[in-house]
Each structure stands twice: as structure tokens, then as C-alpha cells.
Specification:
four-stranded mixed sheet; alpha/beta; 2 domains; binds pyridoxal-5'-phosphate; Aspartate Aminotransferase, domain 2; seven-stranded mixed sheet; Aspartate Aminotransferase, domain 1; 15 helices
Amino acid sequence: MTNRDLFEKAKELMPGGVSSPVRAFKAVGGEPIIVSHAQGCRLWDVEGKEYIDFLMSWGPLILGHSHPRVVKALEEQLRKGLSYGLTNAHEITLAQMIVSAMPSVEMVRFVSSGTEATMSAIRLARGYTGRKYVVKFEGCYHGHYDGLLVSAGSGVATLGIPGTPGVPEEIANLTIVLPYNDVQALEETFKKYGESIACVIVEPIAGNMGTVLPKDGFLQALRKLTKEYSALLIFDEVITNFRVSKGGAQEMYSVDPDLTCMGKVIGGGMPLGAYGGKKEIMKKVAPEGPIYQAGTLSGNPMAMISGIATLSELFETNPYPYLEQISQQLCDGISQILSDKGITHRINRVGSMFTVFFTEKEVFDYSTAKTSNLELFGKFFRALLKEGVLIPPSQFEAWFLSTAHTKEDIDEALNRIDRAVRSI
Ligand SMILES: *Cc1c(COP(=O)(O)O)cnc(C)c1O
């Protein structure tokens, strides 16, 4: 079985041969690999080729693939039922863990993906405020919900789709899009439309236009303006929750949003999302309040168990200083390799999430992210893949490290990256 044969077959059965667009490698050229299995920081394709993995399933796998503690917990749960459709005790345990860690979250509702979390948080914000406009930032991706696919990052940025057909103008018109890190644009918008704005949704550290950090004062200005106009501030921490620190970006920057969207790491590789926030707002969600939101598989015990095992390991071992160390080691190494070859680049990094941009410009929003040399990125990606290093198949994404990456793995990856870069 080759990657090519299977992908040809996949294309006959699934649009583009994939279940999510960026997996088709369209932005970087070359042929997608079909995964056979993975363990720790390594992944193998169906041809038996091994890769050191810096994609890590796009973020959830902070403990690496098939961490023994997560596997053991899931094996035990397997024999006790896969889904009940009623409340189970594990939901309470995981909710308690999230509430204890995330500074602004007092209550949570579990859903099955990050998209569901943002979609539901927006509905709640509209229901709570009785207003209809949503402010988002160019290059931020919040899942594929209609009203949030306007000027979105991630796959939408990668494919160059301006929004998407299928989202009616009337819906797109309710979303106001502003440049990331632009406080002045924000102030002007609030002056004009402030009384009609239900919420501002933001990636407090952006990951979906590549990693982009908030400038000093940006998140604080967001907090101040939303409060002033009684709009809700929603942090989309689907990537950053339990990734950049135990309390997410909100703890790191000491800014408390009204609502927080969660996903990725909280499920430890199982499909899981959540939204949460202040009790006063969360109590408006059905059945306690009138704002409807539901799910057959919500609170799924397998997802809960996977999340509990993952967060327990994070809480007990505090791996963040270690993740910082190996991430710095990797980024310093990559920077050295690229500089030696005279390749202009810039690395934006927070803890174990980062992006290598091929530009001389400082990258602080979507338009500066787009100055990266995409053709060079494609070559870089393909050369790395050939040498056995897997990174996200798009410029506009973050690389992720895990506790399963040892310093020796990083050294080995740097050797492979060095060989790859010398070949381009
Ligand atoms: C991945 C992501 C989402 C969407 O989550 P899914 O589980 O893919 O639906 C939403 N927001 C951010 C910031 C993300 O990175």
C-alpha cells in the first residue's frame, strides 16, 4: 500500500480525499501522507516511513501520541460504556479541573469540538446582550461556523478563500472584521457601533495566521472597551488552553474575558470542546436559562477520561518550563540553520507553539503574516517531509511540541532539518 494509491482512492470517496481541507497539502504541494500509527513524538505513514512530529494533531497532543496514562485510563473506560446520553461523574471531575485552572471560568458546558464551542459562545453572547453584531479579527480562525468564517485564518487563509460560498451575505454582514493588534480601529468601531455589538471574539495569542502575539495593551484595550459598551469579551483559547500555561493566555496576560472557548488539549486527542465563563452569563444557557444548546455526545465519557488523564498529568508534572526549554532549543537551532544558509526568516513563539515565517518584516497581524514567502515555505515543508520531519502543511499554522519530545529528539530533528535546508 502506498500513500499515493490510498490517496487516489480517498479522493473518489471523500471531497479532496480528506476530512478537513488542509490535510490535502494543497498549499505546500507534494503528496499527502496517509498515517498508519504514531507513538510519543513520532508518526509513521502506510509506507513505513517515520517522521518526528511537530504537527501533533494541530495542538491537542501536549503529552505526545498515546501517552501511557491516557491510554490506560481509556482502556479502563472502554469496558464501562462508550456513551450514556446522561450525566456521568467524569464530567464533574473535568469541569472542576477546568474551573480550578482557568482564572475567569466559573462554569462550563461541554461540546464536541472547538467550532461548537465558539458557535455556542456567540449565541450565548447575542442572547445575553440582546445585540447582533460580532467583532472578530482578520486572520483569526474560530472554527467553521458561518458568522465566523469571514476573513478567517487557518485553512481559509491557506486556500485563499475570501470567506466561503454558502454563507449568506446577511449573516456575513453581522460580523465586523478588524486588523489584529490595531487598538485604534477597535476604538473607532466601538464609537460607531458600540451599542449594537454583542461581543468581540479573539484568539488572545493567534495561532491560525501562524503564531502572532498580542502587542502590549491590545488585550487590555479589548477588555476596557467591551466593558465600557457592555459587550462581552470572548477569548478563543481552543489552542492556548493548557498549552501556553496552566491558566491559558488569560492567566499569562492577566486579562479576564467574559467567556472562554476551549478545545484541543482539554480532550487530549479525543473530540472535545467546551465554553465557559462567569456564572451570571453561563446560567442563561438551557436548561437553567433560555438560550438553547445541546449535544447527543456532549460530555462523552471517553472524551472526559482522556481530558482528565491529560490535565492530571499536566497539573502533577508542570511540564511548562521543560516545554519552554526544548522549544527554545528547537527554534534557536532552526534559526541558526536558516541564517547559515542566508535565508531571511522570523520566528514567533509562545512556549511550545511557534511559527517560522520567511520574511524580514515583524509579523503582528494577518497582512504582515502574508508577507512570508509562501513558495519558499512550500519547498521547506517538502524538504522536511522527505527527511522525516512533519510540520503543519501551511504557513498559517503553529508548530507544536510535546512532553514526549526529548532533547535528543530535538537534536535529531535539527540534523534532519539541516539536511533538508541544504537540499533546497
Ligand atoms: C482549532 C481551532 C478551532 C476549531 O476547533 P475544531 O475542534 O477544529 O472545531 C477554533 N478556534 C481556534 C483558535 C482553533 O485553533
